[in-house]
Design goal:
The chain is of the alpha+beta class and 266 residues long. The chain has two domains: 46 residues, 2-Layer Sandwich (Uridine Diphospho-n-acetylenolpyruvylglucosamine Reductase, domain 2), CATH 3.30.43; 206 residues, Uridine Diphospho-n-acetylenolpyruvylglucosamine Reductase, domain 3, CATH 3.30.465. 34% of the residues lie in helices and 25% in strands. The protein is built from eleven helices and 14 strands. A hairpin with a 7-residue loop joins strand 13 and strand 14. It starts with a strand and ends with a helix.
């Protein structure tokens, strides 16, 4: 490691002020991405702002027809939450499949969304469920939050404080995981809430998570796996690496989408 300044603010306001004033500062939530990249010298921030001492940034509660999750809530807490398991089991199952026990007990939902790793699971949850990301300044719809690989709509001194998930009538998440990292080679979340159908894909897009409108339109006519027969996603614009070609990922999207619809409908 190398020399850096560690700040441990006690409020979101203090953290935001430090973020605005500190040169090349990074927020430290769960640290499951930031710390490894620092060890590999892929990131070298002059300051780290640790959010762990700020009260009120974690917790899960049901508010009306939405589940509200604090940004510092650990993946394991989401997976084990009776509130999530009862009201939004697809999200509990998704959280339970993230990484390994160490990652699930340290990583946070806010850190995952703010990092927007193209292979992460939570971006698919937010986009596929139509979540709202709440910051210290505003509310951002998931459709507007993710702007590219490792990029979001967050401003320079903006901090995610909580995430609001509207409860769908039906939802399911299916992923094909890398056997070593458990990252999604491809992951698909499908949800139905009223007349709104969402199909979100992670792990495949060169620019990160995205929706498949052709699948959504077909499922609006009839919500069942057969509605996706004959439909596919073009390989152009998809990731291609040692783990799978763009064509392979395109095929997986169709397969996993049908499985997710079948699981949600069942």
């Amino acid at each position: 490691m190398y020399a850096f300044t560690l700040h441990r603010p006690s409020s979101v306001r203090q953290a935001a002020n430090l973020l605005a004033k500190s040169e090349d500062a990074k927020l430290l939530a769960g640290g499951q991405t930031l710390i490894p990249t620092m060890k590999q010298r892929l990131a070298s921030p002059a300051s780290l702002i640790d959010l762990s001492l700020i009260e009120g940034l974690s917790g899960i509660e049901l508010r009306g027809r939405s589940i509200v999750i604090g940004a510092m809530t650990r993946h394991a807490e989401v997976a084990d939450s009776p509130v999530v398991q009862e009201n939004l089991p697809a999200l509990a199952e998704l959280a339970g499949e993230i990484g390994d026990p160490h990652v699930r007990n340290m990583g946070t939902i806010g850190g995952s969304l703010a990092n927007n790793d193209p292979n992460a699971d939570y971006p698919a949850a937010a986009l596929g469920l139509g979540a709202t990301i709440v910051t210290n300044k505003r509310r951002i719809a998931a459709d507007e939050f993710f702007t590219g690989m490792f990029e979001t709509a967050l401003g320079a001194d903006e901090i995610v404080t909580k995430v609001m998930f509207p409860l769908p009538k039906k939802a399911a998440y299916v992923k094909f995981a890398n056997p070593a990292s458990r990252y999604a080679l491809v992951g698909v979340l499908v949800s139905k809430r009223g007349r709104e159908i969402r199909v979100a894909v992670t792990g495949a897009g060169a620019n990160g998570v995205f929706r498949v409108t052709a699948f959504e339109e077909a499922l609006q006519r009839r919500f069942g796996p057969k509605s996706l027969d004959g439909l596919s996603v073009p390989a152009a614009g998809l990731n291609s690496d040692i783990h799978g070609s763009a064509e392979y990922r395109a095929h997986l999207i169709g397969v996993l989408a049908r499985r997710a619809v079948a699981a949600a409908a069942g």
